[in-house]
Amino acid sequence: MKIAMLAPIAWRTPPRGYGPWERVVSLLTEGLAVRGIDVTLFATADSLTQAKLHACVPHPYEEDKTLDAKVWECLHISELFERAGDFDLIHNHFDFLPLTYSGLTDTPVLTTIHGFSSPKILPVYKKYNSRTHYVAISNADRSSELDYIATVYHGIDLENFTFRETPEDYLLFFGRIHHDKGAAEAVQIARQTGMKLILAGVIQDMDYYKAAVEPHLDGVMLDYVGVAGPELRDKLLGGARALLHPIHFKEPFGLSVVEAGACGTPVVAFNKGSMPELLENGVNGFLVDDVPAAAEAVRSLSLVSRLKCRQLVEERFSRERMVEDYLDVYHKIIDQKKVKCGEALP
Description:
By secondary structure, the chain is an alpha/beta fold. It folds into two domains: 2-155 and 318-340, Glycogen Phosphorylase B (Rossmann fold, 3-Layer(aba) Sandwich), CATH 3.40.50.2000; 158-316, 3-Layer(aba) Sandwich (Rossmann fold), CATH 3.40.50. It is 34% helix and 15% strand. The protein is built from eleven helices and 13 strands. The protein has a seven-stranded parallel β-sheet with strand order 3-2-1-4-5-6-7, with helices on both faces. A six-stranded parallel β-sheet has the order 10-9-8-11-12-13, with helices on both faces. Helix 1 crosses helix 11 and helix 4 (183-193) packs across helix 9. The two termini are 13 Å apart. The model has no long low-confidence stretch (mean pLDDT 95).
């Protein structure tokens, strides 16, 4: 089985800091490579992998502003599809644009839909609905207008998340500094509980940051520490009493929620999107509807077993489970093609 893995090129694969799609691509690619699967990763030239790396993009365009994103996206995608015949399956993690190439090859194309940035992109997915295959990353993120071959939850590299039975005395906000992620509400929750709050993540909306976060920073009870790489991420997540996740949108998955659980840290999240699929209320966190309810949940954290938080992640969100699920999907698609072409199955 020869798989072409198409990664985004906004960030390196794996990312140095922020880059959730690239992180998932890396975990899947490395997990497949360990299993002996022949994988070629199409990513930026500075990417790191045990698989074969094929690159025409020198650097991530978010890290090198001299690169025109549209130009290099076109070059990147075409680089793979001009070699499509070399592979048994193309696994697309690049959103909707590669689908427009899919009619030019007989190689099956599987797209993991990492979320819908806007309803405006749905027509592309609808056009190729019967010609390609889609995976959802949560049941909540499925569109009723599309067909899916499976839902495959993201997995994480558990060995890079340290379980801590005894946390420190702070709350954590870990994610994009943007209205969607609810950084302002995290500040309000911390203030209502009287607890210290640490915020970490890329500032995606500077105006929002300056209005909703920066005026409250004092370096003591409220501190912003920037983008956290793997080591700091592990330290922050493991040390927190809870991860605050007061989202304002129907989040497709939420990697930080699972990563927190891997460290034994419960999550207090607004009950939107995929959160009910990731959290069992009162078991590995709390699902709430507003700031006062979130503050009350923080006061109830002693009811949550940190060991149980870790165990649930080990059972449901490991990299190995994700790899197995995708291998099942790959075999199903390749077998379907063999039947369609009249080939005998092994």
